[in-house]
Amino acid sequence: QEKSCCLSTALLGEDSEISQEQLFELLKYAALGECHDAAQPSWCHIYHQSHLAGVVVVVLHGTSQLHFYRFYLQFKHLRKVFRHRFTLTPSANFPVSLYGEGTNLKPQNTAQGLTSTSSECITKSSDLKWDPIIQRYGEKKQGLTSYTLTLEEQKKNDYPTEGSPGCKGFISTECDQQRTDSSPLFGLDCEMCLTAKGNEVTRVSLVDAQGQCLLNELVKPESTVVNYRTRFSGITKKMLLPVKTRLSDIQARLKKMLPHDAVLVGHSLNSDLQALEMIHPSVIDTSLLFARSEGRRFKLKFLAKAVLGKEIQCEQRIGHDPTEDARAALELAQFFIEQGPTKVVAELNLEMLLTAEKLAEVSQNKAALQPQGCGFQEQLNEPPHLSKSCFLDCLQVTGQKPLLLGRQGLDSSGLCQSNVSTSNKQILQRALEDVPLSKFSIIQFSLGPEHVASHLHAGLHEKVRSKLTDMLTIYAGPFGNNFCMKSVKKEFGRCGPIQSVTVVTETFQPFVCIQYEVLEAAQLAVERLNGAEVAGSCIEVQRQVTAAMLDCNALIKELELDVENEGVIYVAGLKKSLTETDLQEEFSQLKDLETLFLPKDLQSGKHRNYCFLKFQNSQSAVDALEALNGWTMRGGELRSRNALAAGHLWRWIQQMNDSNGKKGKHIFYEQMEQLSNSEQELRRKVKTLDHHIKKLYRSLQSNTLCVVLFPGVNSTHGSQAGLGLMGIKDDEGRSAC
């Protein structure tokens, strides 16, 4: 009897973002198994890989997560079949990046760090423009003033600035902003301990442009230390006992030491200045200088090794050395300024090096579990090799020639069977004929000309953001004229985290407008509190009725039935004092509980007052909802319902909440009429495309791995992350496990 292949992932919540290199890792293992150095992916697991009938990758060119959620109801087949989904870092052209020649992730330890001496590793100039560093700074080499943060950038990244909330009493360095490209650079780093007041400085280091240490001082915090964080800070109780220096002393010394045009350099320098309670107008932040997409940042330890060839923050040493960290940040800024953005991007390939380094760590962890003398140690001398051209070569060695179908000739390597078609319908017909004959296929469909997709992108972004905001917002009332706002916040807060509360004054009696952070909370408020007595009044709870919200109930219902939400429930009303361990213990009596996901605040790192519970099957989730009805935990009443936005969608909503909607807004209003007309046509195309994928999927053999990619968008109107949906087809035509 033939074994069924199965796929499992652990992608619920914040861990659902996958890089292209991790995706290549999966595709390589699926196609080759354990031969040719292919390894089981670290982020998912394929069971019985040898029984896979084939691998099919469907690429929806020019699309992103934005398109999936804007046309969620139209993608009827995709959302009902594929249970595994993940956020994908955006790609300018996925098939080209997969089949392109000379892209190699193998780093070599050179004098410059992890950079490779191979000319093949240099990024093609045509791809440079899509890199976040180039998009931010341009390709030309510039002076240091071009890399200092503007006042708006400082405010956006939580730097203390004059007049900002929370900066009352902060000391200014009194350096003016008359900086030039020859202004002196100073590296700054602080170590903090946790006190009754919060994070307080306990050590400060300052180095000059030559790397000479000007200041390396221990500081006595004002409040009692709660946690010395010795593992990271290197500070102990014994070290601080004889210290007399206070924060005010350090502030005075820094003011005296820094010249009027000084430029401070640091890695996430905002944290240091906040802890120092100081304001400085000219800063270079290396965590932002070496820019990444989606607001992610490289760690200082990685940059020091990859760019400078230096090992810092070594595990053998207790705690970080602030002087070492300050010097590393300074040298990184100097390297960037001297080399310029183009050279940094073209020669370093930081994203690839980071992936290779992580994979090397995984290999080392596996090696530690191997018995001595097994020969595995020899493999650790080289990090994993993920050359994409090597991937194609391996497929050919095994007698597999990949199939590539699309509207344009995307493979110039000669390693693929390439067939160019003129329409999606023609591509589908060729796929139905050719895919069964190939073990590895990439099918690329398109929603239309690339310039049209780019043209509509800004408007679509604003429409999705606006609709999400409307779905997260509820109106409650009427209340008495002297109602207690605290009671209202408390009652509605039991449904989940509140983003904002405002009083509606245009009505005869006051109403309250509440915007939640998650969809489940807003829906729970509508379901539980409509008709309830709150703050002494019997109230109605409803969403605003607009043209865009007329299909809200249908959308909520489809989200609830989404295959990704099977067996997942949302629970609110948790006490923030409860730890994840406490919750695991409290919920352990629920039958077939598989995973508990406790979201954290993206800024503070503290967990929220709600969680998601994933069960092994839908019936267990239904039973759990019944059991949790009226359940109290440590004095708090729990409220629960079926999940609407579990997994990567929860993370995506957080990013949309953080968006202020300013980017591309002028484009949105100027093109509103054209967008409306074009979107109707786009809806029709999406529905047809979904039908094409359904037809293709039904034609696949059982045990075929199918991956559908919205590769993401990089354009002048902005960047949007991609989305991946995947599953292994079972005998009944669905995505297996």
Characterise the protein shown here.
- The chain is of the alpha/beta class.
- Among the domains are: 198 residues, Nucleotidyltransferase, domain 5 (2-Layer Sandwich); 78 residues, Alpha-Beta Plaits (2-Layer Sandwich).
- It is built from 27 helices and 33 strands.
- The strands form nine sheets. Strands 2, 4, 5, 14, 15, 16, 29, 32 and 33 form a nine-stranded mixed beta sheet that branches.
- α1 runs parallel beside α17, α13 packs across α14 and α18 packs parallel to α27.
- The radius of gyration is 28 Å and the shape is globular.
- InterPro entries: Nucleotide-bd_a/b_plait_sf (IPR012677), RBD_domain_sf (IPR035979), REX1-like_exo (IPR034922), REXO1/3/4-like (IPR047021), Ribonucl_H (IPR013520), RNaseH-like_sf (IPR012337), RNaseH_sf (IPR036397), RRM_dom (IPR000504).
- GO terms for molecular function: exonuclease activity; RNA binding.
- Keywords: Exonuclease, Hydrolase, Nuclease, RNA-binding.
- One of its GO terms (cellular component) is nucleus.
- This is REXO5 exonuclease.
